[in-house]
Amino acid sequence: MGCVIRWKLKAALLALMFGATGFAWAEEWMDATPLSAAQLADSSGRQGIPMQLQLNDNQQNANVSDNRLSGNVVTGNNSISDNAFGNMSGVATVIQNSGNQVVIQDSTQINILINH
Length: 116
Fold this sequence. Notes:
- This protein is mostly helical.
- The protein has helices at residues 2-21, 37-42.
- The protein starts with a helix and ends in a 74-residue tail after the last helix.
């Protein structure tokens, strides 16, 4: 029951947000002036930016059961070289696992605030 109520609250909140502000299409931003490095530095960590409503939800569920290892079980090594991220751009996710019978769940949420 809690999930249903939570879902309804989220839906109502999103309806209020989009109903009040409307949608902004990508074409509307084509003529926008980029911020300078100084302006970006001034807003680092949301300094000087009024509080905005942010709603994130992430639910993961995993189960490992009834697995058996026997005999000489060998696992691998994890290593990342010195320059592994040297030419990286954007957002990267790195997951490493050196064990057996492991569930790995990953989630990335990126929040972008654009004041129009």
